Amino acid sequence: MVPHLTTALSGPINELEQRVLESMPAIERWFRLEWMEHTPTFYASVDLRNAGYKLAPVDTNLFPAGFNHLSEEVLPLAVQAAMAAIEKICPEAKNLLLVVQRRQPDSFYLSHLLTLVRIFTMAGLNVRLGTLDETVQEAQTLRLADGRSLQIEPVLRQRSRIGLKDFDPCTILLNDDLSAGIPDRLRALHEQYLLPPLHAGWPLRRKRHHQQAYEEVCKRFAKLLGMDPWLLVPATVAQQQVDLNQAQHVQALQAQVDVVLSRTRRKFKDYGIQENAFVAIKPDAASCSDCVLMVRDAKDLPEILARHGASTRLPQGPCDLIVQEGIPSYERIHDTVAEPVVCLMDRFVVGGYYRVHAGRQENEALNVPGARYVPLAFAQGAQLPRPGETPGVSAPNRFYMYGVVARLAMLAASYELEATDPEAEEL
Amino acid sequence: MVPHLTTALSGPINELEQRVLESMPAIERWFRLEWMEHTPTFYASVDLRNAGYKLAPVDTNLFPAGFNHLSEEVLPLAVQAAMAAIEKICPEAKNLLLVVQRRQPDSFYLSHLLTLVRIFTMAGLNVRLGTLDETVQEAQTLRLADGRSLQIEPVLRQRSRIGLKDFDPCTILLNDDLSAGIPDRLRALHEQYLLPPLHAGWPLRRKRHHQQAYEEVCKRFAKLLGMDPWLLVPATVAQQQVDLNQAQHVQALQAQVDVVLSRTRRKFKDYGIQENAFVAIKPDAASCSDCVLMVRDAKDLPEILARHGASTRLPQGPCDLIVQEGIPSYERIHDTVAEPVVCLMDRFVVGGYYRVHAGRQENEALNVPGARYVPLAFAQGAQLPRPGETPGVSAPNRFYMYGVVARLAMLAASYELEATDPEAEEL
């Protein structure tokens, strides 16, 4: 199933798809060489937006929470990728501690955790779940709606190691994005592998750094393919220490909105794209779609803030923001706006799913309450890309392109974490 | 689909299946550690025979020729495994030369080659096909029944490298088992990766070495699982320089047949197995199922030789033989005897298929003209093993066990090639 694109089949995305397919061996070799120099972030999920005229990641989640939406068919790929990852990081690994989100888990999240447990058990690890939530003092059994259950235990620190009661892991996989802070228990774990590293968590991570790295990666990738990197990169500027209650700050932000809108409109003109440009204003240091403001004209900003300011979860008081070219999603499943999410394990694309939202328009964020999920289900015999098919009509070809762009985002995350590593030595 | 087993569901194989499933993380970790020390043979296919009371590989093919029988669904696993293999062997690899069998290819073999080309292209290599056949002087285009075609070119030697016209590969993948001899062109290729190495070809390879290595691997694996290695290992003895035209040699061979039959009957008694023991006599240095003689009683051997000697392809004149415990195959697909074949790429199981033969009995070789092939097709959502299901009724669980035994055979091939490497330094 290729979701319906309202853009013409001859649009830039189809040219891009064709270019990507033709260059497959060169692209795979390029990634292979990149991964020799840069370490993947163990796992990730990447939200993409396909506007027909361009295709770009809008969120590179280093603590993915949607592996339950993967179809059963692709789980063997995830197991194989996990095997390859473990072999590289710590081949003698026996015990894996999976640290879960601190917020109260819903049934979907528990199902996601069960999927991760299955994957890592089959990859050859004893997996147990721990939480950093200090209110959890003893093991608790959580039940899913379908009757399955899992046990979550308090994470304990003993000297220089963390673990659970009677469970000493050599590898710790964080699925808590640390939004609630970095507990002291996690610091200075020099004897164990902590993946991803602490600075991948939101207390330290910044979207602007990811965006810089992504632009750098795309510039080189676009050179390889002889194409305009704009087809993959949303224009982005950062504005630090913005207090939305101060008129002066709002004016400065309006100026940035204008910068992004003008850049975008210039490109629209170059490409003959008949679209209304808009921007998304997002916090630089958090991953929440309901703190995103969409703005079509800088002069509307004060009014939008007045109208939506209270209902959004945009931080009150000075905060860092980014202003990013808005990418509409013209993919639809049964007339509902959809955006693909690609799941990665180590350097491999292991599958994906669509996020759909009946109550949202193509130029709005979909990752908000009410979203539903549809596995990127392929008809049998259709998983590998098929060079030679008409661009835009083959699901495997489309998904191959999505996988390439998601890997560009994952590679950018590697660059980003290298550049922001607080323990990196100065060169 | 689990082919029907005529043995009771409570038989030893189901106990083995249960033990294997329960020990999954330990097994995967054991393999992971083994593969740190031993290099997989790049690719292989392993023919298994499931007798209900035991399960054993009967042929570990290091030049597999049945990848066309894999279902489309598992090809992404093969691509991912190929990526991991290339990354380890030669990450900067760009061009791959695939050296095809010298014998006249049929449509099935061409389809197999096309599958390999697809897999390695998608793993990021430029793939071209070459032949060592000296009668091929220029590129020839071969057409398949379905209209697809491929081009095969003569392999050229230039100084210390081989390649094709205008194609200089860094890696050469042999799919020719070298039965027709090792051409000088392939010797002393110190600048290129030749996979598998020359001594994996039949001019140098011996089944008895593989069997020794397999017994060693199984002894250690059985210890890990606390089980009798006999459940996985067919009793085997070797007899060298046998001339079947000399009565004295035939008598010596009869004595070996007796040795294997007695060992097998003793085990049948221990386990209470109601079966008629038989042996398979095979050449030590070739992979052809139609040179296999099945013998139920040593005293029948002269008569069998007189009756079948001329019609089999057993070598005339002195040759090395092995006498191996015969493993009946009690799997059936639609009342036809079937045996599973597991395909491996690098250290990963990527899929499998069943070889079925309507004209053969459960105690005969199936890899002879007239065999048909059925992909090990799994219903959607059923590929990963499912701990907790009743042993013997779950296809993914059965296939997981097959994958484990096939990997034991692949690991044995690594041990074997290390032990027989003519260039290995003496320790």
From TrEMBL, chains A, B:
This is Glutamate--cysteine ligase. GO terms for molecular function: glutamate-cysteine ligase activity. It comes from Roseateles rivi. Keywords: Ligase. NCBIfam families: gshA_ferroox. InterPro entries: GshA, GshA_N. Gene3D superfamilies: Glutamate-cysteine ligase, N-terminal domain. The keyword Lipid metabolism does not apply. Its EC number is 6.3.2.2.
